[in-house]
Design goal:
Length: 228
Amino acid sequence: MFHQNLFFFFFLLLFSPTISPCPDSGPVEPTTPLVSFLLRLQSTALQTLGPANFDPKLYVDLPLKSNLSSTEAAFDKLPRSPNGSVPVRDLYRFVNRYFGGAGTDLVPADPEDFVLEPEGFLPKVENEEVRAWALEVHSLWKNLSWRVSDEVRGRPDLHTLLPLPGRFVVPGSRFREVCYWDSYWILRGLLVSKMYQTAKSITLNLLSLVKKYGYVLIAARAYYANKR
């Protein structure tokens, strides 16, 4: 089991050079053929749906169901207007046919070190209502714990999600991957919840990114593979 002070010393050494939050999409880099194509799909979706109905992160997180070449060929056959938009119905039909849902390349992973009320949890909190609320927040770890599916490891070319080795905790909502700055706060919360094994697994995932790329990516997605 990690000693808490040693863990924080190690983690701060690893991450203190740069601090940046998990971005709300941000500029995506065409780092792989799939990412390059998803940028085309993203642009078409923006023209088709308009800014009010458009989520840029959704499209770059979609996993392919089959090979990229046949998907691109089908995409190029979609009817287009002069501004590059396609009929909304055709866009949705294309996405549903050739892509899995965003997040379907993750598998739920119940944290083995989770207990409903950890021994020594927030010992200075005596107010019953506050303590009940804190335990309710603590229970969210089970909903946010995932691992990368074996499909990602077998066919990484079909996914923008990177094949991390262990289970991890995601920020939630639209963010379905390990994020750099969010991981700091997640780890602090896990240590409060006495979930040392989960904290260790997340740290080892981040170290695997350092080993492969030389630093921890903004988020564990292929489109951030060349961005600090």
